[in-house]
Design brief:
CATH superfamily of the largest domain: GntR ligand-binding domain-like
CATH class of the largest domain: Mainly Alpha
Helix content: over 70%
CATH topology of the largest domain: Four Helix Bundle (Hemerythrin (Met), subunit A)
Number of domains: 2
């Protein structure tokens, strides 16, 4: 299977797991969402990371995703998902081998997915599932790029990195050196030429737009939204949000709900 076919199959997995997470979260009772089972699997994932036990981590990861799909209770979805999952086994193995040193990031994504399902927040669960699948692909692709690749686009690589890692601390010097393979000054210049924004300005714009989307479509607490877009300080998040949208996060959510009822 070539890279294009793998990418399309991965996109199909993203769609299936997004649908599954949405339906799993929508079930009427907490018991139906299986939070206890999902959290037990999370504990196994954490234990595997501490032991650096790659086979155990991979087995628990597969069980967690299968459990989410099964919890959706959508006819034939589990059967279709298993076919897609099997088709991606080679890709999964390569991804885990190359990303396993960074497995704590994967667990944080899993934890967010489980909590959105347990909370019954369908939109947040779907967003978490799709973001997780797409981020795993990106992390693998990111590692395959080598400095000195004549066909590499420093700005595109940096912009993609920011989109997938906006929840992490990000610094111009590190992104320029380790992702874009150029100097900080040149990367900053490229951002201004293409987007009319500094590196930090572009990153803040991405974060605020994603925050606005989550506030409008999910029931995630404002503090959780702030963390999801890279802010540990909720007050600072609120200041930046109001500066961009002339509305506090709470007002934005209230206004969005009002628009949805019209």
């Amino acid at each position: 299977m070539n890279d294009t076919e793998l990418r399309r199959l991965s996109e199909l997995r993203s769609m299936l797991e997004g649908l599954a997470a949405r339906h799993a979260a929508s079930h009427a009772t907490p018991a139906a969402r299986q939070p206890a089972l999902l959290r037990a699997i999370l504990k196994r994932l954490n234990a595997a990371v501490r032991r650096r036990d790659y086979p155990a981590f991979r087995a628990a990861d597969a069980q967690l995703h299968e459990t989410v799909v099964a919890a959706a209770a959508v006819p034939l979805l589990l059967e279709v998902w298993r076919v897609v999952w099997k088709g991606l086994q080679g890709f999964h193995q390569k991804g885990f081998e190359e990303c396993f040193p960074d497995a704590r990031v994967l667990i944080e994504e899993h934890e967010h997915l489980v909590e959105t399902i347990a909370a019954g927040d369908s939109a947040a669960a779907e967003d978490a599932a799709r973001s997780h699948v797409e981020a795993v692909w990106f992390r693998l692709a990111e590692r395959q790029h080598q400095a000195g690749n004549a066909n590499a686009d420093p700005l595109q690589r940096a912009a993609s990195h920011l989109a997938f890692r906006m929840h992490c601390p990000l610094r111009l010097t590190v992104v320029a050196k380790e992702v874009a393979f150029t100097s900080p000054g040149n990367l900053s210049r490229l951002f201004r030429l293409r987007y009319g924004l500094s590196f930090q300005g572009y990153l803040q714009k991405l974060r605020m737009e994603k925050a606005a989307e989550l506030l409008s479509t999910t029931r995630l607490p404002i503090a959780s939204v702030a963390r999801r877009v890279g802010y540990r300080d909720v007050s600072r998040f609120g200041q930046h949000f109001k500066r961009r949208f002339r509305s506090t996060p709470r007002q934005w959510r209230s206004e969005s709900a009002g628009r949805g009822q019209r």
